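pasting for ref
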Amino acid sequence: MKRFTVLFALATTGFAGAAYVVEDAPDWRGDANTAHYEWETFTSADGITGGPNFPGNEPFPSGNALLFNFGENAIITGAGNIYGFGGALNIHTYGYSDTDIQDVVFNFATMGTEIDYAGAMLAWNDGTEGGESGIVMPLFDYSMNYYEEVDFGQGPGAIVNVSWSFDLSGLSADIREVGLIWSSDTVNISLNTATMDLRYAAIPAPGALALLGLAGLAGRRRRR
């Protein structure tokens, strides 16, 4: 019981709600045909009854990005973190696009017990019922951008900034939805911050589409 009390007190401090110490921000963030979503505070600890957490940096609720916790007995702390007080976290982070997703980068800042890093998985599909889909797991290739061991009084813990990056451009599918799913090793973990970056295939502007149509028409006339 003492361990719960100590960790809960730490999880409700302002430090636990801080942003990344080191974030793996892609160099294409902010470019054309990209999207960036961030969660610095959370409002739903239970994805079943409380629904999703929407990113705080986009108009609410667009539905272009969603984050759920499906682990049991979690709470929202005073700092706005999702805290696995009575059970492990089970975090699902989803992104949606109107065109083919080429690259995706996920970042998470946690405190306390750790994520089962190699047990994480990436799911993707083409957004159509019965269409193409796939799962990538286990994900041994992740980046530990910051790691600091912390003594919580009873049992080890850590402050962690971890990221997963995926180049999906080699897949033949027209990917419209992606989701990263991970669970914590056990209770007493606080999800402080999350970000997701997507890069899409470029879509020709309406004017460019018209020009392509004219070019095709001209080609047919020349062949005649």
